[in-house]
């Protein structure tokens, strides 16, 4: 049913960009394939819209669209290729811009004006809009914002409050988990600068000459901190001093900021006179300052020294002055804690460790299980039962525990048969820890060393070369074992009297923590069967006693071979390294242009120090890692851990 439309004159030809497709001859409507009609020459005259009306000679009107026809399905016709002059019709759907994947620009791209908005592109895979920014991904001066930035731990507090105890204990823990850490005790610098200590008058606030010497000693220690963290591969430096004034702490903060170090403050607060007096009698009287004094004179002089510090003491105030600092306040030897603005993972681990330690007297007993069947056969790993001599040791251990008469003794074992059978003879409740299981030897489980050498000669050679970092195929390394035993160490620090019945490799790791042994020494510590190790924590360490229970056994100790490496291991396999428990890092800067940035800083420490003040603490740095001739596919060259020197 078609209605015939009255004839109309075509619209006139109009010049200009806004005339639309009807004003341009020879243009094609996008998506339809219909051609526009050519305009007729002459004046525009339109037919009357209603009968009887004169023709309209006014401005031309847009043509009325043709009536729709019933839908008839037909085969789609291909669209004609548009000519170079063709453009889409205003009624056509807008064409979409092609999608572009987000690819960062080259480092040499020009910097974007910060006032201009970022260009948005759409990722083909994720279908999200991403900003296009051609700036380099890592700025050259973003040290404190990085997770692995070097950290300066700043001790705060009056004398005899346990700062040095916390410093050395924390350093021992961090080195044990593989974070290179070193203590810089300003008191040692002062003793080097002032050869002979006279009296407490040296610490009086009105002693200007002594104040200059003390400040120069602090600056010398900070200089060594900078060298250790920026050049020697250290990750954490403990600045052990009183730091009781805001002026001194501001100087340390300025030093850390200028060198791109993080700063974490640990303040020890104790108002219990009994604890202070006990600390003085146990530690301070035996210091080099009082080697020629009796106990009463030393106690009196040290109490007067504390009074000199109390006159100018300004505690950390996280509610007002120090609200932006990262800190923890240890109040009354762990009775209460105050934590403020912990920045990263390593600081949270430090806080967790400090919240678990205590100074109460206690005794820790460590021993291996009784001799088992695999010990007699020379096999490693497995889960065999006790031999006849192993059962005798279990009975002897029960008698030994009764003689010690320890109240509230807790007994811990692994989940393997030999330790459980040893603990059963004690007739005491015991706890099973999966973390105390022997090191997993992987494919070498239940084999003798001769069988390993014949079956896996390459693995045997690799382990002989570096026993700490070597990881058994599908098994563990000593480094992995340290990570597994960290919860055990935390719980041991919380407890009082504990007996731990474990295995040789596990006992070596635990003993290395308490005796502050390096990763190189740990796999070769002697832990014989049928011997109890009695550990008694003392001021700045741990005293160990070895008690043999007179039951014979085989020896499972293997001495270090002459072919064992004495430097970094070039044959590292399976990447037995974790981010936080890595060997000593190489001396490469951690961030772009780090050395240039440090060299250009304006916070250079003064070099005009007296000759008595040391400018470098003794330390040891390993050589750079190297690869063997020909290279190793899939191997990772690593360096060994840094040796922490007590100062």
Automatic annotation (TrEMBL):
Pfam families: 6PF2K, His_Phos_1. The active site is at residues 369, 438. The keyword Secreted does not apply. GO terms for biological process: fructose 2,6-bisphosphate metabolic process; fructose metabolic process. Substrate binds at residues 368-375. This is 6-phosphofructo-2-kinase/fructose-2,6-biphosphatase 3. Residues 75-87 have a biased composition (Pro residues). Residues 557-566 have a biased composition (Basic and acidic residues). In the C-terminal section; belongs to the phosphoglycerate mutase family. Keywords: ATP-binding, Hydrolase, Kinase, Multifunctional enzyme, Nucleotide-binding, Phosphoprotein, Transferase. The keyword Transferase applies. GO terms for cellular component: 6-phosphofructo-2-kinase/fructose-2,6-biphosphatase complex; nucleoplasm. Residues 141-361 form the 6-phosphofructo-2-kinase domain. One of its GO terms (molecular function) is 6-phosphofructo-2-kinase activity. Residues 1-92, 557-590 are annotated as: Disordered.
């Amino acid at each position: 049913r078609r209605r015939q439309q009255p004839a109309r004159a075509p619209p006139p030809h109009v010049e200009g960009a806004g005339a639309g497709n009807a004003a341009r001859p020879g243009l094609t409507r996008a998506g339809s394939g219909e051609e526009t009609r050519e305009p007729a020459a002459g004046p525009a005259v339109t037919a009357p819209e209603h009968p009887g009306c004169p023709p309209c000679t006014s401005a031309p009107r847009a043509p009325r669209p043709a009536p729709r026809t019933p839908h008839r399905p037909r085969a789609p016709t291909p669209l004609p290729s548009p000519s170079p002059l063709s453009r889409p019709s205003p009624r056509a759907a807008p064409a979409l811009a092609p999608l572009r994947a987000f690819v960062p620009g080259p480092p040499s791209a020009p910097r974007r004006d910060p006032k201009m908005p970022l260009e948005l592109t759409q990722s083909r895979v994720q279908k999200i809009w991403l900003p296009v920014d051609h700036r380099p991904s890592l700025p050259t001066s973003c040290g404190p914002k990085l997770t692995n930035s070097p950290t300066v731990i700043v001790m705060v507090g009056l004398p005899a409050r346990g700062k040095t105890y916390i410093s050395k204990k924390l350093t021992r823990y961090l080195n044990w988990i593989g974070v290179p850490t070193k203590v810089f005790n300003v008191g040692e610098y002062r003793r080097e600068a002032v050869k002979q200590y006279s009296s407490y008058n040296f610490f009086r606030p009105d002693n200007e000459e002594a104040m200059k010497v003390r400040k120069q000693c602090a600056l010398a220690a900070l200089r060594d901190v900078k060298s250790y963290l920026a050049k020697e591969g250290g990750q954490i430096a403990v600045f052990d001093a009183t730091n009781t004034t805001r002026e001194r702490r501001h100087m340390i903060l300025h030093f850390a900021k200028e060198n791109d170090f993080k700063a974490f403050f640990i303040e020890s607060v104790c108002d219990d006179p009994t604890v202070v007096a006990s600390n003085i009698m146990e530690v301070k009287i035996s210091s080099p300052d009082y080697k020629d004094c009796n106990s009463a004179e030393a106690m009196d002089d040290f109490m007067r020294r504390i009074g000199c510090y109390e006159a100018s003491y300004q505690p950390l105030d996280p509610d007002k002055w120090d609200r932006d600092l990262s800190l923890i306040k240890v109040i009354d030897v762990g009775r209460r804690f105050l934590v403020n603005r912990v920045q990263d993972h390593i600081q949270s681990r430090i806080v967790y460790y400090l919240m678990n330690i205590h100074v109460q007297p206690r005794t820790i007993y460590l021993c291996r299980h009784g001799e088992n069947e695999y010990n007699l056969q020379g096999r490693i790993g497995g889960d065999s039962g006790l031999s006849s001599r192993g059962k005798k040791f279990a009975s002897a251990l029960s008698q030994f525990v009764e003689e010690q008469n320890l109240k509230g003794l807790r007994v811990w074992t692994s989940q393997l048969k030999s330790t459980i059978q040893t603990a059963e003879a004690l007739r005491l409740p015991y706890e099973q820890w999966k973390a105390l299981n022997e090191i997993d030897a992987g494919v070498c489980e239940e084999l003798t060393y001769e069988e390993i050498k014949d079956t896996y000669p390459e693995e045997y050679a690799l382990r002989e070369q570096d026993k700490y970092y070597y990881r058994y195929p599908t098994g563990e390394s000593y480094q992995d074992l340290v990570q597994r035993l960290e919860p055990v160490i935390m719980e041991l620090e919380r407890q009082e009297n504990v007996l731990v019945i474990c295995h040789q490799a596990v006992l070596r790791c635990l003993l290395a923590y308490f005796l502050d042994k390096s990763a190189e020494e740990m796999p070769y510590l002697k832990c014989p069967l049928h011997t109890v190790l009695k550990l008694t924590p003392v001021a700045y360490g741990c005293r160990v006693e070895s008690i043999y229970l007179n039951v014979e056994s085989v020896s499972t100790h293997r001495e270090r071979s002459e072919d064992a490496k004495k430097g970094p291991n070039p044959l590292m396999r399976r990447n037995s390294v974790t981010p936080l428990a890595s060997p000593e890092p190489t001396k490469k800067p951690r961030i772009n242009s780090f050395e240039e940035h440090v060299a250009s800083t304006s916070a250079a420490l003064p070099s005009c120090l007296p000759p008595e003040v040391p400018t470098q603490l003794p330390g040891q740095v390993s050589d750079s890692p190297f690869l063997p001739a020909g290279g190793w596919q899939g191997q990772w060259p690593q360096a060994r851990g840094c040796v922490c020197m007590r100062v």
